Amino acid sequence: MNYEFQLLQFPTLLATIPWIYMLPSVLVLLKTFEVYWKEMRKKQEKHVFLLILLSQSAFLGLFLSDFFMTRLPSTGILTSWCASIAPNHWLKIIVFVSVYFNYLVLYFPFLLVIINHFLVRYGVPFLLILPICFTFYLIPALGVCRQRAVPYPFGSVWIHFIDSAFGLTNKYFHLSNLVFCMTIAVIANIFVVCKVRGARPKIVSPVLSLASKRANTSITITTLAMIIFYVTTGVFLIIFILYFGTNSYFNYAEIFRPFANDLQFFVVTWAFFLTHPVFWRSTIVEPLSSRSWFRRRFHNYY
Fold first, then answer.
1. How many whole angstroms from its chain centre is CA 187?
2. Mean pLDDT score of the chain, rounded to an integer?
3. Is there a contact between 283 and 274 (Cβ–Cβ < 8 Å)?
4. Where, if anywhere, are coiled coils annotated (predicted)?
5. What are phi and psi for residue 159, nearest 5 degrees?
6. Residue 273: CB partners within 8 Å, gap ≥ 6?
């Protein structure tokens, strides 16, 4: 293929910008892991930290796999190599990993709002296996490189698959999982936020009042980030189902889809770090308890 990679194009910018905010966020995630490993593993709120780590690690995995599936190939740096190889299972693995993490980022935030010891002990291993049930059709599939549509320039490609089992694709499996997890998670988070707001008038201590404000801010930001992620993912998925393969505004909307995923990782990672008292020793606040998280997420602050 007679193609020459050109550095100064907008896909290169789109592939570079995310590292500006992702790398500091990864450092914060590593700090969270350090705190969990050194201090939280034997404490009551260990399951909260564990699920935060699993959820944000899944988003990091989604970012990396999506980077190699769409963002990096879109720059054109792999185009000549892609043109020189036949469809194969190695490229399919990139697609599989991305789809796998797409399910995990739905499941762990959902599990976080209804956490208890039993669900963590048995739910986490189950959720790690569950995505395979919705990706079995990729077993015989082959990975291929496809030219991206306008507005991407010639030579911008992305990695996809062909020859899946029974001709199945991911869109309807993903949409059904998304609707279920979003419904449960949003209802649970709204209930908790309302309970926190209702507890405000009962607080008389200035220290606890400050703790209440921080707890409420943390829950509100986390809830908003979760709702934004579910909603934006659902919108992009529906647009994909309706308009994929056509010359439509979907091609432009697809540019912003990965950034919506990045938002969840960035906001929740920093919100948890900036608001949880374990990272700020000078703040006197009783720590969160993971026992019956849905019922006690706010009570332990008061």
1. 19
2. 80
3. no
4. none
5. -100, 130
6. 28, 31, 32, 279
List of long-range contacts for 139-142, beta carbons under 8 Å, 24+ apart: 139/165, 140/164, 140/165, 141/92, 141/95, 141/165, 142/87, 142/88, 142/89, 142/91, 142/92
Residue range 140-160, pLDDT digits in tens: 999 999 998 888 888 899 999
Q: How many CB atoms lie within 10 A of CB 132?
A: 13
- pLDDT tens digits, one per residue of 158-168: 999 999 999 99
* Domains of the chain as residue ranges with CATH: 21-301 (1.20.1070.10)
Q: What is the 3-state secondary structure (H, E, C) of the chain?
A: CCCCCCCCCHHHHHHHHHHHHHHHHHHHHHHHHHHHHHHHCCCCCHHHHHHHHHHHHHHHHHHHHHHHHHHHHHCCCCHHHHHCCCCEHHHHHHHHHHHHHHHHHHHHHHHHCCCCHHHHHHHHHHHHHHHHHHCHHHCCCEEEEEECCCCCCCCCEEEEEECCHHHCCCHHHHHHHHHHHHHHHHHHHHHHHHHHHHHHHHCCCHHHHHHHHHHHHHHHHHHHHHHHHHHHHHHHHHHHHHHCCCCCCHHHHHHHHHHHHHHHHHHHHHHHHHHCHHHCCCCCCCCCCCCCHHHHCCHHHC
Note if the pTM is more than 0.85: no
AA identity, residue 18: P
